[in-house]
Every structure is written in structure tokens, then in C-alpha cells.
Specification:
Structural class: mainly alpha
Shape: globular
Strand content: under 5%
Length: 255
């Protein structure tokens, strides 16, 4: 039987190759969600082989995005036996593919899609850096990736200021940058990023006060900042008061 990469490389139809990659990635993810990890591993291996098939010079952006998505989802897959270094390498490979897709995007819709994917992948790279090794050099690299994520998402937000997803992601990305800065002992930078996160969270509350994901992120952010202030040896009273308010708000919307 032909190997998966041979099938993809022989296919003259880029759309067919894209759809096969998308379907294979979704199938792998579905098995992972159902905790069928052996099946998920096999499907991800096929998706990864398809994603690494030889590329045509005129490959459309959508196919390149499908390659990147397959690699990125494989890197994030739960229950798959993979070292932190392997996940980091796969995520970097996905990021490079998204960059390639950005260069060939045919219209604004494709460019927006790739920009959001780059922001999300940058955030995952920031976290993967720290999972691989927790040292000063990794902290610095992780912060750069978090900053890249914020920059990409802010560009998307500037184009679509009423897209709630952009605001949710910006709160998460800025809070992650704050956490990384605090982890390296730069508490002033941590506070600056938390202020940025809170600014976007305030706008999010104006646009959609009952958004459930945003509520959970808000609580987590207050806890993280309180933990940072404890490590810095400063008062956490303000954070605890805000945490109590966030918890009360969540309970109110659950009634």
C-alpha cells in the first residue's frame, strides 16, 4: 500500500489534498477527545505525514494552512506520548507553515484566518518553551512569543473591534505575558501586562458582560496576579477584592 505522503504528493487537486488533511486532523482530534488515544495517535501520524508531503511552488494558502493546523493540533493533542521538546519542535514547524500561508494568502479573509492562527500558535509556543526547560533563556524566548501573539491579535482586533474572540484572546495573551514576566522576576513588566489584559477585559465586559469563557479567564487572571504580588512581597488586597467581585459576577449570571 502507498504511504500517506505518496498519496498526497501524487494528488493533482490541491483542494482534495486540503480536505483530506482537514478530515484526518478532525478525525484524530475526535478520537483524542473520546480518549481513544491509540486511534488518535495513528490518525495524527497520518495527518503529520500528509502535512509534510512535498509542496508545489503554487500551493494555495488554504492547503498550507491545513498542513500547519495538522502539525499544531498534533503538538497539542492530549494523551499522546510525546516529550516537551517534540511538542515544541512540532509547534515551531506549524508556525513556519502558517507564516508560509500568510505570504500566499489570496484575500483579506485568508489573511485574517492566518493572523489568528499565528497569534494562537505564538501563545502555545510561549507555553511550550517553559515546559521544555524552565530557565532564564527560555523565559526570554517565551516572552518574545507571547509578545508576538499579542501583536498579531491586536492587528486582528484593530480590523475587527467587535469580534469578541479577539478580545478574549487578547486578555489571555496579555495575562500569559504577565505570568511569564513575573516568573522571571520582572514584576514591573508583569504588572504592565496585567494592566493591558485588564484594559481589554474591561472592553470585553462592555461588549459582552456575561461571556462565560471571559468570566473564567477573569477569575484566573485575578488569581495569577495575586500570586505574583505575594511572590513580590506586596499587598494582594486589591486583587482579592477584585477576585471576590468576579466570583460574585459569575454566580449572578449563573442564576
Amino acid at each position: 500500500a502507498a504511504e500517506p505522503w505518496q498519496d498526497a504528493r501524487r494528488s493533482p487537486d490541491a483542494r482534495a489534498a486540503e480536505l483530506r488533511l482537514v478530515a484526518q486532523t478532525l478525525l484524530a482530534g475526535s478520537d483524542g477527545d473520546a480518549q481513544h488515544f491509540d486511534a488518535a495517535r495513528a490518525h495524527f501520524e497520518t495527518a503529520r505525514a500528509l502535512a509534510r508531503a512535498a509542496r508545489d511552488d503554487n500551493e494555495p494558502s488554504a492547503l498550507t494552512q491545513a498542513r500547519a493546523n495538522a502539525l499544531g493540533e498534533c503538538a497539542k493533542a492530549p494523551g499522546i506520548d510525546m516529550s516537551a521538546s517534540q511538542r515544541l519542535a512540532l509547534t515551531r514547524e506549524a508556525y513556519a507553515s502558517y507564516q508560509a500561508a500568510q505570504r500566499t494568502a489570496a484575500d483579506d479573509k485568508e489573511r485574517d484566518s492566518v493572523a489568528n492562527a499565528l497569534a494562537t500558535t505564538s501563545l502555545f509556543l510561549a507555553r511550550a518553551q517553559l515546559e521544555d526547560h524552565d530557565d532564564a533563556q527560555r523565559h526570554a524566548k517565551a516572552l518574545v512569543y507571547a509578545q508576538d501573539s499579542i501583536r498579531e491579535q491586536e492587528a486582528a482586533y484593530a480590523k475587527h473591534p467587535h469580534d469578541i474572540k479577539n478580545l478574549i484572546n487578547l486578555v489571555l495573551e496579555a495575562a500569559t505575558a504577565a505570568s511569564i514576566a513575573a516568573r522571571s522576576g520582572d514584576y514591573d513588566a508583569g504588572r504592565a501586562y496585567y494592566r493591558k489584559a485588564r484594559g481589554y477585559d474591561e472592553e470585553l465586559q462592555r461588549q459582552d458582560p456575561g461571556q462565560p469563557t471571559a468570566m473564567l479567564n477573569r477569575i484566573a487572571m485575578r488569581l495569577q496576579q495575586a500570586e505574583m504580588e505575594l511572590r513580590a512581597g506586596t499587598s494582594v488586597r486589591a486583587q482579592l477584592e477584585e477576585l471576590a467581585a468576579a466570583l460574585a459576577q459569575q454566580q449572578l449570571f449563573q442564576l
